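Support request, please re-run this one:
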Amino acid sequence: MIGEIVAIGTELLMGQIVNGDAQFLSRRLQSLGISVYYHQTVGDNPGRMREALALALSRSDLVITTGGLGPTQDDLSKEIVADYFGLPMEFDQASWAAIDAYFARTGRTCTLNNRKQAMFARGAVILPNACGTAPGCMLLHGGKIVVQLPGPPAEMEQMFDSEVYGRLAGMTGGCIASRYIRIYGMGESQVAQLCARWIEAEGGVTVAPYCQTGQVQLRVTARAESEEQALALVEPVVSEICGVLGSSVYAVTPSSETTMQEIVGELLVSRGLTVSTAESCTGGLVAAKLVDYPGISSVLREAPVTYANEAKVRYCGVRPETLRAYGAVSEQTAREMAQGLRKESGADIAVATTGIAGPGGGTPEKPVGLVYVACACAQGVSVERLLLGGSRARIRELSALRALDMIRRAALAETAAT
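Re-run finished. Output below.
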């Protein structure tokens, strides 16, 4: 089955909101074995909406629309589909009662223009909306399937998972399962070269690389009659690839959305290893990423932002003579920051960053993008020298990512030592 997503809304074309609906739906359809070849975005214009629908139906078996189900005059998604198939619109009393009840439950008055949301093409399967006022619908006509969902992500995601996913699963007669290999410290070209025999292979298991900021991800996918059977094909390939890539693999997950901070947070909390951070150029970004992980409060000791030299001395015990001799951006200062913070905070692991994030402040000897990241644990102190390019935000992001990976490696070393 080939699927296509048509996102409706002028606000999408104007860049006022990001089309996260298409990303969510593509991932969910992939898990059903439905190939998504096209995305379309169209404004609230009846003529262009009809053209987009006609194009989608000419090349895809399944079309999912998002948006255009509201009560206003420009919300015309259902009407366009009904007109395209030559079907009359019919009023659904049960949907109208649910809409009225939603307004009453939220303490608002249901105006008559909301009746528009209870109108559907004849023969459509109505999809209740548990999070809002606009029901969706599913229409099978002429060998095609059209699913119409609301635009707000919370409403769309709940409706798809509870009302649509199971119906589509019954139609596809198969299942796709994927595992995502998350890689740090190795570039995309090197990963592609080392994994060429799997990436270029033809057969039941596909391996596809994706480049992210500072990271590479490999998606390993197979299709079978059930998820268990598909995973049985995927897992041996994942194991072989991990054997080749070694310690550069920081996680293998069922979701492409897993982050480095999630892996590091789970590692620290599950093993009871405490951590502290001292940040200069990253300005608290490392700590903020760690705090994204629920439960990190049990292991996160201290996280001073030591931007000024005085702060490096006060919180990390950096010697003033080190700063005078080598400067704030130096291997020596980064080393003393990590060592001193670990001693002062009593943490098992301490990480420190110091560098020049730009756009100004660089010199020929110490250019913009020069960053030192240090990590101290019972096994010793390591310092990484980075020469990064790009914007201030990119330099800070890549520096924080390196700090997280150094915490990860230190945590593994601490565990292995015990």
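The chain has a mean pLDDT of 94. DSSP finds 15 helices and 16 strands in the chain.
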